[in-house]
Amino acid sequence: MSVDTTGTSGMVVISGNDILYTPPVGAFGGSDSFTYAITNTTLAQSSTGTVSVKTVSICTLDNVNCAGLSPALEFTDIQSAVDAASPGDWVKIQGGTYNHATTDVLLPRTLLDIGVSGTNMEPIRVEAFDGESVTLTGWRKTANGWGDCTSIDRSKNIQITGFDVSTSYIISIDGTSISEVGDTDSTTTVAKLAVALEASNEPGFVALAFKSSGDTLMISSPTGPFTVTRTVSGGTGTWGAVVDEAVTSPPGCTDSPVVNNEIVVRVSGEYIELRNVTIEDSTRYGLEVTGKNSTFENISVRNSFNDNIFVGARTLTGASHGNKFKLIESYLSRHGAGMLVSSVNNGNPIRYDFLYDTVIEDSLFYLNGHQSDGKISPPVAGDSAGGGNSDGFVVTKSCEDDKFKAATLVLNSVTRETLCPDNRLSGSVVFNNADDGIDATWGDSVVSGNISFLNGPQGFKGYKSLRQSQVGIAYVGNIAVSEDVGFEIRQDKRGSFIHNLAAHNNDELKRGIQISPTNLARSEDYEVFNNLSAFNPSFDFLITGNPAVRPDIRNNWVEDSNLGDEFPSFGDPMIVDSTFDGESIDVNFPVGSSNEEKLAFIRDQSRQALSPKPGSPLIDAGKLVPGLHCTTADDSATPPAVTATCRHWLGLAPDIGPYEVK
Q1: What is the mean pLDDT of residues 103-126?
Q2: What is the chain's Cα-based Rg?
Q3: Do 404 and 347 touch, CB atoms closer than 8 A?
Q4: If 390 and its partner were Cys, which of 196, 250, 368, 438 is the partner (CB 3.0–4.6 Å)?
Q5: What predicted TM-score, i.e. pTM, was given to this entire model?
């Protein structure tokens, strides 16, 4: 059987004895046709026919609201289509870019505000037309918006602090006298300095930052490091200290939004499903989720001035829980996190229904705290370090610190002792963020199967639980390479740390795993099993705080630790590539990759390099943990179901580390 698709707008595929026809992308109604031929070679017979197809627009269905740029559509803007939606309805968005107008730019602005609600059985779905690309963009792409700052080389700058504008100075750079500069008005002083530098015999020197008396003066040269001397020619001021390798905003940097309260997409309703869109260029948050029981899938968020994604309650009477995020890509937030999860406290006792049962899985968080040119963002108000708040994923201190706890929480008839419980971050890849990779302390929650590498320089931690948590987090099957500390885990009364891997964490502290259990009542309340930590120059494994009761530590493999006989397993773990670190990972995703394909691209590299080699002492050397592992091996006579949610394993016992091999 063959098909002649000449003149056909759709896609025609032969599958066995069937002919499958797919209408063209974006077809809102019309007709199409194709010709087929069937030949019987045995009987030397053949026949042909033409099939006519009438495509019926999905937009004609009663429960579908179509919005887009085409005047033929029912709704010409997305907000109207959403506002008209009822439980069970779909909102389909035509491919294209949708952005804010420039009127009333000083007012709070939201391009799409989803305040309607569906139900558990009939959610409201908002998504792009199948196969089409939808981009929702903020106001910044206008003449008065904000953009990248010119990149500068840290090794070519001199920063002078304590510059007093009431005094005149003679500046000499590398022995060449520049000019006398000084004025009581800082703007005039900088202007004089810029002219003097430009007219000097040292072309290319530029004054980068100067605000007022006592502030910082920076001078930059494109040609290399240099020295500065200065002479006070009048007045009583002083120059202060000279510091090499300073970083600040170059001239012309407009990294300060005119509208800093813009949110491109806000979801405050319940039972919403948002899929297959790109959100970019917000002057505050790209996506804000303050509602509950909603699903977000296959969404890319980038280039927000603050956090790319905010999840949590905004008021003391609000609630945000039951939200699920999958295949999210969040990158290049300027001065915030890739994703911020927050429960409001404002100094008041926490209400437990603010935040719980939040699930983030199979997502990417990278290059947050950076500009679009890849350089770390410059310092601004609220982010004095530049990228100092830019974790890949972070849970705020309102979930971390038990001092805000007012009373116990009862969920599903079970009394809980923790803030923000029953959350999960799993299967995600986090790298090259300016602060920490994952900074999360939400008690009775799970962090599992994630990969973190090359974060910093502000935080350097792959995984961090900063505050003491009454009820611990389960860290299971995570990987940290090329950080300052792979895992810095501070727990109070309970916790578990199982099947994790830390390798080649070479920055500053150079530690693989650092655990600080402070108030354990029993050793078994904190389980440390089946972990691998190797090739970390300072410590592979460190217990800090000198706890009176130490965790239950078994079946781990390290090269060195401060625990002596508690770690009998030392030496070469025999993984496939013992030199593999964050720099080894190729992060140049193939052009056109989906979020799912990008995840697989990183995961495959990690698995191939960090799995045990044949004969490795890690194989079958782990401990089977009841409640975590399946009761039998996948290759046993009675294997668990493939769909079983327990942790699967092979052979005689689980392997040490995150990867299982035969």
Answers
A1: 82
A2: 29
A3: no
A4: 368
A5: 0.78
